[in-house]
Specification:
Elements (H helix, E strand, L loop, with lengths): L12 H8 L2 H10 L5 E2 L9 H13 L3 E6 L2 E6 L1 H7 L3 H10 L11 H7 L1
Helix pairs in contact: 1-3
């Protein structure tokens, strides 16, 4: 089964904002914003596989990330070009704001919020 990636014109602002409202997912986006592809297990540490899978699905289904299989793992990358084309300046504003926010203490900071924001 291949993961669902919406086409550029199917990316909805409300889905992107909902996906980025979770502190763990926002942290993922700040890591991916450095560019390139990142193995899914290297982006967040100290988080259960089921929690990571949930966050990847939310980010992927909202059109924020690409998730591509590579051997036994998946590679993640930010859909920056698509997001910038759909919502010019939005990602830059979110990333700038994320730089100034206090970092969650420990991996558990966003786990409870994940269930609530979905």
């Amino acid at each position: 089964m291949h993961p669902h990636h919406p086409n550029r014109d199917q990316i909805c602002l409300e889905n992107v904002l909902a996906a980025l409202s979770n502190p763990m997912r926002l942290t993922v986006v700040t890591v991916l914003a450095s560019g390139g592809q990142h193995p899914c297990g290297s982006v967040l540490s100290g988080v259960s596989k089921s929690t990571l899978t949930h966050h990847w699905r939310v980010l992927r289904d909202s059109g924020v990330i690409w998730q591509q299989p590579s051997g036994r793992e998946n590679l993640l990358s930010l859909r920056r070009e698509d997001l910038d084309a759909r919502f010019p300046g939005l990602l830059d504003a979110i990333l700038a704001s994320a730089e100034n926010r206090p970092q969650p203490v420990g991996a558990g900071a966003g786990v409870g919020a994940a269930a609530e924001t979905n």
